[in-house]
Amino acid sequence: MTTESTVAVTYVGKENPFKDRLYRSGLTFTPEQTRPLPPALAARFLHHDDLFKLATSTEVVESAKDKKAGATSEQQSQPVDDTAKLLAEQSQQQNEERTKEDARYALLEQLEKMDRQGLINWAQDSYKQKIPGNLGVAKARDMAKSFIDQYGMP
Question: By CB count within 10 A, which of 34, 38, 65, 93 is most buried?
């Protein structure tokens, strides 16, 4: 069932199930499954006409009837329309990854502003690792950055 804010798209490929990895939507499709998608995402999927097609109004109506009719054995095999839920989960996951990445870049930027003694203290406090005192500030900074890559964010 579509509204003005969605476009119904039907998967016509053969892979069962098909998982979208290109656009990172987190959606999976079974053959001939119709999903209501946001217009921007639907346009991306419809570029791949060997895999997706614009759903006809009868496909959308049949999908709506299946939801209203109750659960017969044939309809139980029909996939549940969880498109909105999956898109929301994927969006939340992307936001969490973006937040982690932003924190990492902020820390790297902070390391760029530290002097050698600050880098040595930071490595000891954060990772219990020693940076030799005879290293120059550039080498100490590289070593501190390598701790982030090796051990993750403190």
Answer: 34
Label each residue of the chain as H, E or C: CCCCCCEEEEECCCCCCEECCCCCCCCEECCCCEEEECHHHHHHHHCCCCCEEECCHHHHHHHHHHHHCCCCHHHHCCCCCCHHHHHHHHHHHHHHHHHHHHHHHHHHHHHHHCCHHHHHHHHHHHHCCCCCCCCCHHHHHHHHHHHHHHHCCC
In the chain, how many domains are there? Answer: 2
- Cα dihedral 128, 133, 137, 139, rounded to 10, equals -70
- 51 lies in the same domain as 115: no
pTM score of the predicted model: 0.55
Domain end point (choices 25, 46, 81): 81
> What confidence tens digit (pLDDT) does each residue in 109-143 have?
999 999 999 999 999 999 999 999 999 999 999 99
Q: Which pair of tokens denotes residue 134? A: 């005879």
Q: Please, are residues 118 and 137 in contact by the beta-carbon 8 Å criterion? A: no
